[in-house]
Amino acid sequence: MSWLAPLPFFLTLAAEAFSLRNDPADESQVQPLPVASFGADASTRPTVAVEAKAFFPISEAWSLTSGLSFASGRSPGLLLVDGIPTGAGRDSQLYGVDVYLKWKPANVSLGYESLAFQAEAILRHLDAGDGIVGEWDGGAYAQIVAQFARRWFVGFRGDIVGVPSSSVLARTGRLARR
């Protein structure tokens, strides 16, 4: 379900509940899969997600979109540890935040210039259970993209995962340009 709030700016609130099914002991994979956040106890513990998104037209040339997200469910557990799936049934929560800021001159004939900044961050908490302590992990990225002609863009992006790092997600970072 979703709702558009009757405010002088755009604010939408959304919520959903759904079932996921995930088998942590699926041995058909050659490489181990990442630790799934959700997918255990689909019939008794659905995954729940909520989101708030806001849009602010700052001026004719500037706009800002921002959001907060949250999801909660039950993790099917870690993959095989000494041949035994561990960590099954731990509650898992995801927390997210995002922002998008854009400058583009209004009503400029044949003008293709623009500048956009975008960033997102997410944190995950896996509760303690099945002999494993509770832990946090997460990641983020940020990018800036400039348009200077009809089909010409230049951008830079940085990504980092494992902030904080956990037993299932090591710290890794990278930079990219396009």
Distance between the termini: 37 Å
The assembly state of the depicted protein chains is single chain
User: What class would the helix/strand composition place it in?
Assistant: mainly beta
- The total beta strand count reads 11
* Low-pLDDT ranges: none
The share of residues in extended strands comes to: over 45%
* Average pLDDT metric: 83
Q: Tell me the major beta sheet.
A: 9 strands, antiparallel
Q: What general outline do the C-alpha atoms trace? A: flat
The helix content is under 10%
How do the strands line up in the largest sheet? 1-2-3-4-7-8-9-10-11
H and E order = EEEEEEEEEEE
Total helical segments: 0
- The radius of gyration computed from the alpha-carbon positions, rounded to a whole number of angstroms, is 20 Å
Task: Kindly list the characteristics that best describe this protein.
nine-stranded antiparallel β-sheet, 178 residues, mainly beta, two-stranded antiparallel ribbon, flat, 11 strands
Structure, explained:
0% of the residues lie in helices and 54% in strands. It has 178 residues and is an all-beta fold. Strands 1-2-3-4-7-8-9-10-11 form a nine-stranded antiparallel sheet, with no helix packed on it. It is flat and about 65 Å long. The model has no long low-confidence stretch (mean pLDDT 83).
Layout of helices and strands:
Blueprint: E1 2-4, E2 10-18, E3 47-56, E4 62-74, E5 80-81, E6 84-85, E7 91-103, E8 114-126, E9 135-149, E10 152-161, E11 172-177
Antiparallel strand pairs: 1-2, 2-3, 3-4, 4-7, 5-6, 7-8, 8-9, 9-10, 10-11
